[in-house]
Backbone:
């Protein structure tokens, strides 16, 4: 019982930490939120200031009932606390609040009724004009105090050069189960007098905020920049390649599915039971990303069906909870992504309501230290082709807010 309570408490802290930076679904009727910059559905929602990038936001309301949804945009500091020293006019040209979402489509010929809403930034009502972190909150015009979802995105002004590399030659061993990130920061023309107080860095693996490393201490400090070389704080477990499946047609199985069935009420998709992976086998994945689509790949926003997806993982029973994780879970570790133990079949299982498309996923468990790692049966390998991201924030002397001045993305390749 004590272990159970410890697990629950650690999970709660993990949820709080992750929700500070990740998208949140705050209503049971909202599903399939996707936030994509331009057409790159595999990357973090990072927009380059002044580069013509477009942030696309789409989501479903699981009904045909019309809602007059609006959104507001707020600037946040590097630690994702609200920017209290700014006015809306400082970071937004136009209106930062009260903008309506007017592009909507009702689903056609689907068992699950839904209405798809979408919009993009910039638009004729709002244009971001300052770098940094942002939260975009969607709410019903009649219930502004009850938001239905939150989108987190970043806007970067590339004023500093960020060099990022990853190696399997780590301070914990060579070609074992770890990967180590090296980073170099060049200030360029930016004036930095006290890097300890003016610079904040975040390094992530596969866009995950739950195990991000914040403000790792650099080994080299100079007047021109900082360097992190063989930094023990930037060592990550390699884990394993993400598992994947596709639901492209409700009449037959596609990649990764054992069967698709109709029970008279809803469609069911059974993912092949996941067996232990004792050795590394390369399998191309999207590092947790997902993409809504069907076999025709036309009018996907309002013709794709929803299915109850059944996940099964063969594993010994673990002392801590097991969770499904991917970009489509938004690192939320919500109850609907919690696996339950089936004592009769000796496996973990979970059922999740998902829209047709391509999905990456992994199984995570909580360590006694409060961090999430892949379950032991998934394996932990240095060869895993993980992707790493680095965000660099800067506050000028006397500045009112933190600016995002550098961003880099690198993938380990063999």
Residues:
């Amino acid at each position: 019982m004590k272990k159970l309570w410890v697990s629950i408490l650690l999970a709660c802290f993990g949820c709080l930490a992750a929700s500070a930076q990740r998208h949140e679904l705050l209503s049971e009727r909202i599903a399939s939120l996707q936030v994509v910059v331009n057409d790159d559905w595999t990357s973090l929602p990072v927009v380059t200031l002044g580069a013509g990038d477009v942030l696309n936001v789409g989501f479903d309301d699981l009904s045909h009932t019309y809602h007059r949804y609006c959104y507001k945009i707020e600037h946040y500091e590097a630690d994702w606390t609200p920017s209290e020293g700014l006015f809306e006019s400082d970071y937004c040209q136009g209106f930062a609040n009260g903008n309506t979402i007017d592009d909507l489509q009702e689903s056609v010929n689907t068992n699950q009724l839904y209405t798809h809403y979408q919009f993009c930034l910039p638009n004729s009502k709002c244009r971001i004009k300052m770098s940094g972190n942002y939260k975009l909150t969607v709410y019903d015009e009649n219930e502004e105090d009850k938001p239905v979802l939150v989108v987190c995105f970043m806007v970067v002004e590339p004023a500093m050069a960020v060099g990022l590399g990853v190696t399997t030659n780590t301070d914990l061993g060579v070609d074992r189960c770890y990967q180590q990130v090296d980073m170099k920061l060049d200030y360029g023309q930016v004036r930095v007098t006290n890097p300890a107080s003016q610079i904040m860095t975040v390094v992530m693996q596969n866009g995950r905020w739950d195990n991000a490393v914040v403000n790792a201490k650099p080994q080299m400090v100079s007047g021109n920049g900082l360097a992190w070389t063989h930094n023990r704080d930037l060592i990550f477990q390699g884990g394993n390649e993400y598992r994947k499946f596709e639901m492209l047609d409700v009449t037959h199985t596609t990649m990764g599915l054992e069967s698709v069935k109709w029970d008279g009420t809803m469609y069911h998709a059974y993912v092949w039971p996941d067996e232990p992976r004792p050795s590394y086998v390369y399998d191309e994945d999207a590092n947790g990303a997902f993409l809504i689509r069907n076999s025709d790949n036309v009018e996907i926003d309002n013709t794709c069906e929803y299915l109850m997806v059944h996940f099964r993982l063969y594993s010994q029973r673990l002392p801590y909870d097991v969770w499904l994780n991917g970009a489509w879970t938004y690192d939320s570790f919500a109850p609907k992504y919690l696996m339950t133990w089936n004592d009769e079949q000796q496996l973990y299982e979970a059922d999740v309501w998902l829209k047709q498309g391509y999905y990456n996923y992994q199984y995570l468990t909580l360590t006694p230290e409060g961090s999430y790692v892949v379950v032991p049966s998934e394996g932990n390998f240095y060869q895993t082709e993980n992707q790493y991201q680095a965000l660099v924030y800067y506050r000028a002397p006397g500045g009112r807010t933190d600016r995002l001045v550098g961003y880099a993305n690198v993938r380990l390749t063999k």
